Amino acid sequence: MNTTPFISDSLKKSEIFCGLSGQPLADVIKEGRRISLSPKRLLFYQGDPAISCFLVNKSRLKLTELNDQGKEDILRYIGAGELTTAIAVLKNWDYPLAAESAEDTEAIARDKPTILRMMRRAGAKTEEGILIDIALSRQNIADYSKTTLY
Residue 138 falls within a domain, yes or no? Predict the structure, then answer.
């Protein structure tokens, strides 16, 4: 029986997995919980406790937040290879937004203990803590801090 998980081409090219391929990449993907969503299904709600972060493996998620008038604002769409809500999970925050599948979508969920275990394996101890040497683009940093480049 083949236990290698499906890994989309976009996920293989993702900045977050730069330098990983083959079995090491498959092992990282296996550590998460695979979630399949039909179109227009909510993955999580804004304001719920952030217990898992999500890596899109196939298709897209629509990220939204409710404005002061109770209307839904679309913040952006994320696709295969993109990660959402990791900071909220690590800091024990509530989800700052909601995520809905744009079409048939597959995502990989990771809880806080799994993220920390992966960080410890990938990181190097320094005086300030654990250094995780991952290439981040300006767009990644803007996304993680809920800002834009402009």
Answer: no
